Amino acid sequence: MYTLKLYGKRDIRYEQAEKPQIESSDEVIVKVKAVGICGSDISRYMKLGPYVEGMIFGHEFSGVIESVGETVNHLKPGDRVAGCPALYCGECDSCKKSEFARCENLTVIGSIYPGAFAEYVKLPAENCVKLPDSVDFDTAAMLEPSAVVLHGFYKTAIQPGADIAVMGSGNIGLLAVQWAKIFGAKNVYAIDIDEEKLTLAKRLGANQVINSKDGLVYDQIMELTNGKGVDLALEAAGSVITSAQVFSLCKKGGAVVFLGIPYGDVKVERFYFEKIVRNELKVYGSWNAISAPFPGREWETSLQFMAEEKICVNEMISHCLPLSKGPEMFEAIANKSEPIDKVIFYPELTR
């Protein structure tokens, strides 16, 4: 089968590999129909390199069950599924408390186990979520990032009528805008430096958009909220700058949720840090997309709202390509040579 393998920083190759085989009775093989590039894939491609040299990369996917292990009863060949890529150990203290997102040995496919940038992928049967006919494969490939965002929302006590700011209008931020509306936000403020992304955020539900190139985000938020700030601010950009600025957006007693991962040291100026103390903010870190019963209500609820077309991803997808175009697409993203939003690969397509 054909795959994308990551060998080093900015070194991803379209190569053949052996088709996976079922080795455990609880495993399934999925024929991959659609697989997306995650923001974390870009960071690893550009900055971090692979966990294991030459590993099949990728983890956001949907497909069709090809074969099942002998003890798998709830899935059968031909079933349409999305894949939860997270693999927990089941033995650490967190796993014993069913706190799977806090597993001490948590990993995902595409890291130390073969991933989904491939024609076929293997994973435990419990990691497959069956799809209704109304959810297409492109949408289902974004079930995992939607669940990531919802995992963060579930940590908060946000109520209908709240004001919510979303820092960053990439894929996670755009999903957060939509979830904010579903949670009943009165006003959603989308923040970015890219006017095209802000325009898309407005179409997907943001009431106001803020370009941080136009001045301090703090000043702009205060002007729009009559000097009060927002009830909840979500950091979805994953930059060292926004990870400090986000503390200034909340009103007293507000909450901040970190969804992004800044791959660098975050230096917080006194002005921003004092907001945590003086405004008595609640600060939440949100990691992965899983809970109990595994893979968690994040997946079930995301699928529900996708089926109801209240979480919409089609406008977020800018490129649909054969898997063979992977190396050049990753490099185009790294070089910022063209406007690129969500990229979906179709492994079964030829060149």
Question: Compute the gyration radius: what is it?
Answer: 20 Å
Helix share of residues?
25-40%
Q: Tell me the number of structural domains.
A: 2
CATH class of the largest domain: Alpha Beta
Q: Unreliable runs, pLDDT <50, ≥5 residues?
A: none
Mean pLDDT rating: 97
Cα-to-Cα separation, first versus last residue: 14 Å
> What is the element string, with H for helices and E for strands?
EEEHEEEEHEEEHHEHEHEHEHEHEHEHE
Overall body shape: globular
Using the coordinates shown, work out and report the CATH topology of the largest domain.
Quinone Oxidoreductase, Chain A, domain 1
In CATH, the architecture of the largest domain is Alpha-Beta Complex
Quick one: biggest sheet?
7 strands, mixed
Q: Layout of helices and strands, plus pairs?
A:
Layout: E1 2-8, E2 11-16, E3 27-36, H1 39-48, E4 55-56, E5 60-68, E6 80-83, E7 86-87, H2 93-96, E8 107-108, E9 120-124, E10 128-130, H3 137-140, H4 143-153, E11 163-167, H5 171-182, E12 187-192, H6 195-203, E13 208-211, H7 217-224, E14 230-235, H8 242-245, E15 250-258, H9 270-278, E16 282-285, H10 297-307, E17 317-322, H11 326-335, E18 342-346
Parallel strand pairs: 11-12, 11-14, 12-13, 14-15, 15-16, 17-18
Antiparallel strand pairs: 1-2, 1-4, 3-5, 3-9, 3-18, 5-6, 6-10, 7-8
Walk me through this protein's architecture.
The chain folds into two domains: 201 residues, Quinone Oxidoreductase, Chain A, domain 1; 130 residues, Rossmann fold (3-Layer(aba) Sandwich), CATH 3.40.50. The chain is 26% helix and 27% strand. It contains eleven helices and 18 strands. Helix 4 crosses helix 5 and helix 4 packs across helix 10. The protein is globular. Belongs to the zinc-containing alcohol dehydrogenase family.
